[in-house]
Design brief:
This protein is of the alpha/beta class. It folds into two domains: 82 residues, lambda repressor-like DNA-binding domains (434 Repressor (Amino-terminal Domain)), CATH 1.10.260; 176 residues, 2-Layer Sandwich (Endonuclease, Chain A). It is 44% helix and 11% strand. It has eleven helices and six strands. Strands 3-2-1-4-5-6 form a six-stranded mixed beta sheet. Strand 4 and strand 5 form a beta hairpin. The protein is globular, with a radius of gyration of 20 Å.
Length: 275
């Protein structure tokens, strides 16, 4: 699972994208219009049509509703062929679109920034706006995708989120003080949800200096999947040895975490300091 599979022109995933594009164009709809009706982003529609993203169950069901299974095409049926392909399901390849929405539990460690699932729009926008050579269009797409990603926490079967955040994150200025106050207020509100736990980790913890990562616990006995950050792109794997290594690091970091009630008190104190 270390490299994404090459695309077979005759594969169900390619057929799904081709049929999706054909019916969209026949209906004279733009990718943006379809995205609006499916409740996702134009970028996600583009990736579905180019077969660089494997459709979720809800993607297929909504497309069937949108096009009414025109000309005998069943997107749910094509998707069933996709996930039945030898070598394992391809949806493992996109964390935000295919792993997080299915997770029972997400454990995260963030040594530098507020975790993406808990960022305010202003915090995320400031971070993305500082990316090298980013255009205004790319900025809006990334912010929209980040906000879209967070919707999993509002769904009825939302995953449990266990977030470990380095204490230094509370003192790292992102934008202006008002932005920081809003962000920490958002963390405190999120922590009141029963499915979200936020713990601050003592800044002297060395075990977490290697970088941010997330561990997703999936249903039906499927193996855990890990997402680890790098400067270029995230790395996703369910390799047993690598997952076990990340689990050991997570437990080593957790030993340095303050209890939740103390962690929230620290966030509240820092929030007041950002004036």
């Amino acid at each position: 699972m270390e490299n994404a599979p090459s695309l077979d022109p005759g594969s169900p995933r390619v057929r799904f994208g081709a049929e999706m594009r054909r019916l969209r164009e026949a209906a004279q709809l733009s990718q943006t219009a379809v995205a609006r009706r499916l409740g996702c982003t134009q970028t996600q529609i583009s990736r579905l049509e180019s077969a660089s993203r494997t459709p979720s169950k809800s993607d297929a069901e909504r497309l069937d509703q949108l096009y009414g299974k025109a000309n005998g095409i069943s997107f749910t049926g094509i998707r069933e062929h996709i996930i039945a392909q030898p070598g394992g399901p391809a949806w493992f390849w996109n964390w935000a679109e295919e792993i997080e929405p299915r997770a029972l539990v997400i454990r995260s460690w963030d040594p530098l920034l507020v975790p993406g699932l808990l960022q305010t729009e202003a915090y995320a926008r400031y971070l993305f706006s500082r990316g090298p050579q980013i255009t205004s269009e790319e900025l809006e797409q990334r912010v929209e995708a980040r906000m879209q990603r967070q919707r999993i926490l509002d769904q009825e079967d939302a995953p449990t989120l266990l977030a470990l955040i380095d204490e230094g994150v509370l003192h790292r200025r992102i934008g202006n003080p008002e932005l920081m106050q809003e962000q920490f207020g958002h963390l405190l509100e999120a922590a009141h949800r029963s499915a979200i736990s936020i713990q601050v980790v003592d800044s002297e913890c060395v075990a977490g200096l290697a970088g941010a990562f997330m561990i997703a616990e999936l249903p039906n006995g499927e193996p855990d999947v890990v997402h680890s950050d790098s400067p270029a792109q995230g790395h996703i794997t369910n390799n047993q040895d690598l997952v076990a290594s990340i689990w050991k690091r997570y437990e080593a970091i957790r030993l340095w975490a303050y209890p939740e009630h103390i962690s929230l008190k620290k966030i509240e104190e820092v929030k007041r300091e950002w004036t």
